[in-house]
Design brief:
alpha/beta, Single alpha-helices involved in coiled-coils or other helix-helix interfaces, Rossmann fold, Helix Hairpins, seven-stranded parallel beta sheet, binds guanosine-5'-diphosphate
């Protein structure tokens, strides 16, 4: 059995086999593994003077070019001397049993680069479980010296909000849409985005992409009024040609330094830690309620009563809470 101290040393030395074991440990749902994982995370948590990695979220519908962008961006960052970790949050992989994101074959040149590490989405459990594992993996990657962490997600349910809450800069990739097509973009994602990029601005689509970027920019001005600390830029890029990728990274750095200068960066990170704490409390309570003997014994009947209309949802919720016996 490898000890926690050995795991911590191996992670800090960026020994890939040890890193992989450490990540498997934080992803495990076994209580004894979870206890060890927390010891390990404490052991590798850096002091206050340690360099701070840049955490970037990347979202967009399937096919928009997330993996192509990550590959181009990752290679660009490595050429600048960075070490790049790619993680994915894809709760749908829980159902399909396999991760569609973070798939190494989709980022071929990055996957084989020793200064990169690509980890597919954990496939265990709920979005809460996936998010917890990803956040903890992020801590391990930073301890191993990765100074840029890219977290990829698709816009399913709450996953965008979850990822936005674990990164410093949240980016949204989209395609050239104008006029009515703009309506198709979820308003929520525009509210979360710190940087927006219209991808596939190449070949015959360059002009179209620029027009779309201008329209999106106007739409964003309504969300972020003049005087806001940061107004998200809308860029155009071609991930396959690599054009616009350095500018994309510059925008991320500008966002970071703007927040830092205003003291907002540290405040956000601290708040994220507190929010994460409460998210785990809520998830744990819900788990206890759902699995308690008392709730299990009434659950079927209460759900049936809600379905046939003989109980209102509010009364049903009360019944369930009354049945919760803490066990
Ligand atoms: P993801 O599902 O968002 O990860 O999208 P992918 O990165 O897998 O890209 C989906 C498809 O779009 C692939 O066939 C890519 O080659 C293509 N693609 C990605 N980026 C670009 C781009 O900038 N320009 C063009 N023309 N095609 C692209």
């Amino acid at each position: 059995m490898i000890t926690v101290a050995e795991l911590a040393d191996g992670v800090r030395a960026d020994k890939r086999a040890v890193l992989a074991r450490a990540i498997t440990l934080v992803e495990s749902r076994r209580p004894d593994h979870q206890a060890l994982a927390q010891e390990l995370l404490l052991a590798v948590t850096p002091g206050p003077d340690a360099p701070i990695a840049t955490r970037v979220g990347i979202t967009g519908v399937p096919g928009v070019g997330k993996s192509t962008t990550i590959e181009a961006l990752g290679n660009h960052l490595i050429s600048l001397g960075h070490k790049v970790a790619v993680l994915a949050v894809d709760p749908s992989s829980t159902r399909s049993g396999g991760s569609i994101l973070g798939d190494k074959t989709r980022m071929g040149t990055l996957a084989v680069n020793p200064r990169a590490y690509i980890r597919p989405s954990p496939t265990s459990g709920t979005l809460g479980g996936v998010a917890k594992a990803t956040r903890e993996t992020m801590v391990l990657m930073e301890a191993a010296g990765f100074d840029v962490i890219l977290v990829e997600t698709v816009g399913v349910g709450q996953s965008e909000v979850t990822v936005a809450n674990m990164v410093d800069t949240f980016t949204f990739l989209t395609l050239a849409r104008t006029g009515d097509q703009l309506q198709g973009i979820k308003k929520g994602v525009l509210e979360l985005a710190d940087v927006v990029a219209v991808n596939k601005a190449d070949g015959d689509h360059v002009v179209e992409a620029r027009v779309a970027a201008r329209e999106l920019s106007s739409a964003l001005r309504l969300i972020h009024p003049r005087g806001s600390l940061w107004r998200p830029p809308v860029l155009t890029q071609s991930a396959v040609e690599g054009t616009g990728i350095p500018e994309f990274w510059d925008a991320v750095l500008r966002h970071r330094s703007t927040l830092q200068e205003a003291g907002e960066f540290d405040r956000r990170r601290r708040q994220q830690q507190v929010d994460w704490t409460w998210t785990m409390v809520r998830d744990a309570i819900l788990g206890r309620v759902e699995h308690s003997d008392g709730v299990r014994s009434v659950r079927f009947g209460v759900e049936a009563s809600v379905q046939d209309g003989s109980l209102t949802p509010a009364l049903a919720a009360q019944r369930i809470l009354d049945a919760f016996d803490g066990r």
